[in-house]
Design brief:
heterodimer, A: about 375 residues, alpha+beta, 5-stranded antiparallel β-sheet, 20 strands, about 25% helix, B: about 280 residues, mainly alpha, MetI-like fold
Chain lengths: ~375, ~280
């Protein structure tokens, strides 16, 4: 059992810096997800923790121990890889037992642990098979089993569900969450899939361009994104952004995009006062745009008009891609709304859920 | 072309078969001549090289050879040279290929190019400098004088075959083995080497056949006839039984058989080994 700490960690390949000043404290037994687009440095951060990549600068700690120069095998970690990385020439049993054999664990103990893990993962009848004879989902479970039997202090997972089909991924997601609860071990999980991140993590670390953008609980990331990147990355469909100016008239604040002007509710005005007359980025999530006739009570903004360009009905959700002058936006509206491509549509914004970002720094204004 | 049921015999298909059969016959005809010659009398052979025996199979051509101690001594010598060479080639080529394939270091491509140049020179071309070297090392008339050059000249080809195979093994397997507790050598021993079995079988076969059939180097290095392998044994035998063509043919057949058997045993590995690692899962 151990927490993990990144302290001013940098990773450079020659002149290229792929991780810049990464600082993070992960508590013991926490489930943290590293998420970000490809090339953001999430896998590299994990691989440095695993000891598969060297740390250029800074320190990584597992528990109280600095592990920069500790070889992977002595870090008390186990890892599940995207391709599962099962040894093709070994049976399922031997794949799971391999790490323990190398550690000279007594045979009876190996047998007990492998059988226990196999039992819990429903792999008992497959122990004699070679990986080639397994389905994708079974291989993924063997890879997890191989990590479990080691009883590591920290579990590392590098996109372990990416190679599964969509349906299997949903059930495997739940299994891994249950596993975390059952084992009570620190989990660090890398994914590019924000749904995995939101559903599994105690906290999510959003990364981009080698920088940690924000680390927080899924709820806080969603409701209080710290900058434009996080706001746009978390949530699907992504948040709508508009270049706007903040204007004050008769003591009231308005966001003016040129195409439309919306009123900032009184209870949200306070942090924005310094930005009056300045350019800002105005953010509004698609689900906070409503068709007026189905809008929840308490929304008093004047409607915006636009032309519907694309209609996507997902069954439980209706996405409209709307063009309003120089701005376009996505709205997730009530499925009862009857609308077709090319129709004029009215939308109202729930300004209690508005987001405002500094135009230069792209940081949230709070 | 890829259909499973028997395809229709079209003209182009007929030409294809014809071509394959002609080539196969050309390749196989010397072997047929040798085998047919070895089971008949010399007279029969001289009057018609390709014909079935008229007066029954002459097993004595074989039994005469198989009862000679000199023959069995040569078999022993050939085995000794072949097995030692093959063992050493695998022992050296596998780690060498693993390093070239999996470790990046300064000067790797230069060293690899030097290694590849070795592919261009057959042993026979380099026999003079090799001979001088062997003499300097005091290995004239020693088995090592044959084995070491054979190993050296087999290494480039064997290494290149193995490199291709090792490169195809996914990097995540290496990562996984380190996390499971392997050192770099442990990864080689527990993962890379066992996975490369088809490729190892391929280079083993090539080396076995090459060393078993080696003639010129032994001729130059081994002066003592007690150390002669089968290839030189034939020469000696021919000297004694110069007019007994049938027996010489029997001797040649006996020489061919082990290499053929070994090839047939390893054949299914060779194709995968030479075409690179088809590793799934």
């Amino acid at each position: 059992m151990a927490g993990v700490t990144y302290r001013h960690v940098y990773k450079r390949y020659g002149d290229v810096t792929v991780i810049t000043d990464l600082n993070m404290e992960i508590a013991d037994k926490e489930f943290v997800v590293f998420v970000g687009p490809s090339g953001c440095g999430k896998s590299t951060s994990l691989r440095m923790l695993a000891g598969l990549e060297e740390v250029t600068e800074g320190e990584i700690l597992i528990g109280d121990r600095v592990v920069n120069d500790v070889p992977p095998k002595d870090r008390d970690i186990a890892m599940v890889f995207q391709s599962y990385a099962l040894y093709p020439h070994m049976s399922v049993y031997d794949n799971m037992a391999f790490g323990l054999k190398l550690r000279k664990t007594p045979k009876s103990e190996i047998d007990r642990r492998v059988k226990e893990a196999a039992e819990s993962l429903g792999l008992t009848h497959l122990l004699d098979r070679k990986p080639k004879a397994l389905s994708g989902g079974q291989r993924q479970r063997v890879a997890v089993g191989r990590a479990i039997v080691r009883e590591p202090a920290v579990f590392l997972m590098d996109e372990p569900l990416s190679n599964l089909d969509a349906k299997l991924r949903v059930s495997a997601r739940a299994e891994i969450s249950q596993l975390h609860r059952r084992l009570g071990t620190t989990f660090i999980y890398v994914t590019h899939d924000q749904v995995e991140a939101m559903t599994m993590g105690d906290r999510i670390a959003v990364m981009s361009d080698g920088l940690l953008q924000q680390i927080d609980s899924p709820r806080n990331l969603y409701n209080y994104p710290g900058n434009v990147f996080v706001a746009g990355f978390i949530g699907s469909p992504a948040m709508n952004f508009f270049d706007a100016t903040l204007v004050s008239e008769e003591g009231k604040l308005f966001v003016d995009t040129g195409d439309f002007r919306v009123h900032v509710p009184e209870d949200r005005q306070q942090p924005y006062n310094n930005y009056v007359g300045k350019e800002v980025i105005f953010g509004m999530r698609p689900e906070n745009l409503h068709a007026p006739q189905f809008a929840p009570p308490g929304i008093d903004a004047s409607p915006i008009e636009g032309i519907v360009e694309v209609v996507e009905l997902l069954g439980h959700e209706l996405h409209l891609y709307v063009n309003a002058g120089k701005n376009s936006m996505v709205a997730t509206v009530d499925t009862r709304l009857q609308v077709n491509t090319g129709n004029q549509v009215q939308l109202v914004m729930d300004m209690h859920n508005m987001h405002l970002f500094d135009k230069k720094t792209e940081l949230a204004i709070r | 072309m890829t259909s499973v049921s028997a395809p229709k015999m079209t003209f182009s298909r007929f030409l294809m078969y014809l071509f394959v059969i002609v080539v196969a016959l050309l390749m196989f005809s010397p072997v047929v001549v040798v085998i047919l010659g070895s089971i008949r009398t010399t007279g029969e052979f001289m009057s018609n090289p390709v014909a079935l025996p008229k007066t029954g199979i002459k097993w004595e051509n074989y039994t005469d050879i198989l009862t000679k101690p000199e023959f069995w001594r040569s078999v022993g010598n050939s085995l000794r040279i072949t097995l030692t060479t093959t063992f050493l080639v695998i022992l050296a080529a596998a780690p060498l290929a693993a390093i070239f394939a999996r470790v990046s270091f300064k000067g790797r491509s230069v060293l690899f190019n030097i290694l590849s140049i070795g592919l261009l020179f057959p042993l026979v071309v380099a026999i003079l400098p090799v001979f001088l070297q062997i003499r300097n090392l005091n290995l004239i008339n020693s088995f090592w004088g044959v084995i070491l050059p054979l190993v050296t000249f087999s290494l480039p080809g064997s290494t290149v075959i193995l490199i291709g195979f090792f490169r195809a093994i996914p990097a995540e397997l290496e990562d996984a083995s380190y996390i499971d507790g392997c050192t770099t050598f442990g990864f080689f021993r527990h993962v890379l080497f066992p996975l490369a079995r088809p490729a190892i079988a391929a280079i083993a076969t090539l080396t076995v056949v090459n060393a078993w059939n080696e003639y010129f180097l032994s001729l130059v290095v081994l002066g003592d006839s007690k150390k002669w392998p089968l290839t030189l044994g034939i020469m000696q035998f021919q000297g004694q039984y110069g007019t007994e063509w049938a027996r010489v043919m029997a001797y040649i057949t006996l020489l061919i058989i082990p290499a053929v058997i070994f090839y047939l045993l390893a054949e299914r590995y060779i194709v995968t080994g030479l075409t690179g690692g088809e590793l799934k899962g």
